[in-house]
Specification:
globular, 1 helix, 90 residues, single chain, SH3 type barrels
Length: 90
Amino acid sequence: MFSFSTLMIHTKLIDNENENNILNCSENLYKGACVKIKNSNKTFQVIGINLGKRICWVREWPFACNSKKTFALEISQITLQIFCSNQSSE
C-alpha cells in the first residue's frame, strides 16, 4: 500500500514527464508544420504558436483558398508531426 507522500511524489513525476513531452513537442513545432491531432484522421497545418499559453492555431491541410477555418488547439493535443504533401487526399 502506498503512503500519501509516496503517491504525491509519483504523481509529480508523471506530471513532470507529461510537461517535458509537451515542451519537447513545442520546441520542434513550427509555423507551417503539418500535424495529426487526437480524435481526428485528418492532417492539419500549424499557422500560429503561443508557447506561453501552450496553444497553437491550425487549419485543415490541404486547405481551400476560399476557406479561412482555423481553430486554437492545446499543443498537448498534437500526436504527430508529419511531412506536408502538396497532393490532395481525394
